[in-house]
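Changelog note: in this version the structure field was regenerated for every chain. One regenerated record is shown below for reference.
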Amino acid sequence: LIQNNKKVIVLEKYPQIGGNTTRAGGPMNAAEPDWQKQFKALPGEKQSLKKLAVTPIEHIDPEYRADFKKLQEQIQAYLASGENYLFDSTLLHEIQTYLGGKRIDLNGNEIHGNYSLVNELVNNVLDSVKWLTDLGVKFDRSQVTMPVGALWRRGHKPVEPMGYAFIHVLGDWVKAHGATILTDTRAEHFLFKNGKIAGIIAKNSAGSKVIVHANNVIMTSGGFGANTPMVKKYNTYWKHIDDDIATTNSPAITGDGIRLGQEAGADLVGMGFIQLMPVSDPKTGEIFTGIQTPPENFIMVNQKGKRFVNEFAERDTLAKAAIANGGLFYLIADDKMKDTAYNTSQAAIDAQVKAGTLFKADTLADLAKQIHMDPGTLITTIKKYNSYVDAGKDPDFGKSAFNLKCEQGPFYATPRKPAIHHTMGGLKINTNAQVIAKNGNVIPSLYAAGEVAGGIHAGNRLGGNSLADIFTFGRIAADSICKKDASADVTSGASQN
């Protein structure tokens, strides 16, 4: 918007901008085949492609079938070439987003991502990467990676740690280019004029009313993952959610945007589907304590020291398997994990060992004793896993891709437990990021982007697709306003997630 000479006012209910994006640590998904071709395929990745190549078209929902057929042709051409680079395409990203989100809830209701929204995402996200780069975000082009549950290596990882890499660049840029940022200012109601949205009525930390007049409002307030009662109210996917379940979310993410949207008559979509982050800290819900390395490089073991799942699977699959194994489990890796870990350093590792959030030992036997499991069981598990890495095939759980073996001490174990992470549902939007009312009409002047909007990720979000979503549909919302009204003044909502 600023780049198109629009006046921008940002309302942030917390003292600092950023919301959950500041906490994001995984890479941002975007298919970029010309870049990805410089990396070799991992053992198991071609097998995943072969499965897609022979999947019957009847297993795919009708609106996706034409694209799926084109993808199968792409895959068959790649496999026939005999090449061994990392294959990717926007079609693969689209189909994995669709299949990764296709789910059935406890009531037997099936959901999958809205084709138009998913297609819009995958075909515009690489432009979002380029846009961020132009603004000053530095991406590590020396590696392609993925977070837990991403299904494929297409992650663009910033050089700087966590979501700070995005927030400080964007925050500094908008301040330098004339935006007004009102922190400690919570949007409470829409301002209406002649039945149409004309701004926001907010309240600051002193309790004073703040009224912002605006021709257009973009809501980027996140979901409701830090509001456990609201999660329990809407949940139709998990059999049980504890009252004291931890969350990875900022305390700011309490569903404000959902409430505001309903005030304007917005329709909701997919609200019953809640994503649990399987690899969260058992006490705090934080993600980036202990080992956080791509799933091709760690082993998940239960409290008895046995593997129990394909570590490369979707997040809901991992969380369900963890819950079935008592909730608490461990990520196991060796010293080589430091070369691929997210946002870590030797000093950080040492601090976590001292704090007890990470266990370290020179031998697997000593590591097993520290985490109260039978040494022989853990040693056998790791030895068997290493043999699967050598063979490039996992006969036990069908792990989809392998890279590093666990064989070089010191060895590490991180305790993990599922926590509330992402709320799939939200305000119904179209491909212009316009919010849709219950009667099916567009709500004039109202836009939504990110987790506050529903319809893209359906029942389960791929790791790395949230950053892709917020920056892509945030830009789409702004572009829609610029196309609609060259003189629009704009208010942006609270925490971007």
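Spot check on this record: Confidence is low (pLDDT under 50) at residues 493-497. The first strand starts at residue 7 and ends at 11.
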